[in-house]
Amino acid sequence: MTEVYGIIRKLGATSKYKGYYYVADAVEMAQGIHERPVKVTKDIYPIIARKYKSTPSNVEHNIRTLVNLCWMNHKDTLQEIAGCTMSDKPTNSEFIDILVYYLYCSAKAGTGNK
Q1: Computed over its alpha carbons, how large is the radius of gyration of the chain?
Q2: Which one is the CATH code of 2-110: 3.90.1150.10, 3.40.640.10, 1.10.4160.10, 1.10.10.10?
Q3: What is the rounded average pLDDT for all residues in the chain?
Q4: Residue 113 has pLDDT above 60, yes or no
């Protein structure tokens, strides 16, 4: 989880945003789902909402706020992490996927299996 927080902070967001914790949890959950595509609205938002005594709609909104913050203030860093140029702000699902893939590649590179 520490790695996820580090990446989010690298993108300019801090723990003052609820989305900070929601994104970290979403990334952790997405990393654990290998057998099928991740559907954030059905697989992730409801679980996070229960954990934080919120609603899936609020979880979605707070993650979107964090994505907007990262996009507006650290677009270059986000594109570097994504490994491509993006003309539009990523959706919540795309943002989570970018972080999951970045962590996967970082772990793979760290073991020398790149």
Answers
A1: 14
A2: 1.10.10.10
A3: 92
A4: no
- Between residues 2 and 93, the one the model is more confident about: 93
The per-residue pLDDT for range 15-74, each reduced to its tens digit, is 999 999 999 999 999 998 877 788 999 999 999 999 999 999 999 999 999 999 999 999
Amino acid at 109: A
**In the 3-class helix/strand/coil scheme, how is 73-105 assigned residue by residue?**
HCHHHHHHHHCCCCCCCCCHHHHHHHHHHHHHH
Say what the pTM is: 0.91
DSSP for the chain, please give it: -HHHHHHHHHTT--TTSHHHHHHHHHHHHHHH--SS---IIIIIHHHHHHHTT--HHHHHHHHHHHHHHHHHH-HHHHHHHHTS--SSPPPHHHHHHHHHHHHHHHHHHHTT--
The per-residue pLDDT for 34 is: 72
Residue type, 103: L
